[in-house]
Amino acid sequence: MGSAKRKKPRRDGSLSRERDGIAMSHAEPEKSAAEFIRKNIKPRKYITLEEKDALLKVINDQEHLIITRLLLNGMRVSEVVGLIYYDTKRARRLGKERYDGIRVKDIDFENRIIAIFGKGEKQRSVTIDKGTIALLKIYIELGKIQGRVFRMSVRNVQWFLKKYGEKAGIENLHPHKLRHSWSTFAFRKNVANKFVTDQMGHDDPAFTAEVYDHIDPYARQRDVDTKMGDWLS
Fold this sequence. Notes:
The chain is mainly alpha-helical.
C-alpha cells in the first residue's frame, strides 16, 4: 500500500486541504468585529447631547439642577459641595476638617468665574456658562444665602444623580461622568487644550489630551457620516 499523502502545513502553522479548488483552513476563525470592539474599545464614559437634554428635563429640584449644571461645566463634585477631611493629619495641616465647596464670595457673577480649591488644595478658577450663572444668582438671592451655597454631601449628589439618570434612561450616572462629558465635548469642538486643562484643574495638557481626547465607535460613526460624507457620495 502506498503511504498516505501528508497535508502540507500552511505558513500560519495550520493544515489545509483542497476542496473544489479552494484551500480550506483548519485554523481558528478570527475574532468578529463585534468581539474586537468589545475587547479593544473602552465603554463610553460620557453622556451624549441627547442624554444631557433628557437629564436636565427630568430634574425637578432647583438646587439639584444647578449642581448638575456646574458638574456639566467640568467641576468636581467635591469642588461644588465640599468635602469632609476624614484624614486627621490632612485636616490639621489645612487647619480645618472640611472644605465647604462654593461660597458666595467665591463667585464673580459679572465675569462668570468661580474660584475654588481643587484637587491637592490648589486654588483655581472655573468659567461658567451664562444659563448656569444666572440660575445660581437667582438661587442665592431668593435663599438669602451668604456663606456656603450648597449644604449637602458628595453622597447626596451621587444619590440624586443616579435617580435622575435612571429616569432619563442613563445607566450608572455619577458626578465624574458629567465632568468627563464636558471635556469630551470640548475636545470635539476643538476647544484649546490649554483652556480644557485649566478648566479641569490638571497640571499637564498632555495628560488631559490623553485621558479625554479619545476616539470611540460613536465618534467614528459620526465623523464618517458628516466629515467624510462627501468622499463616497
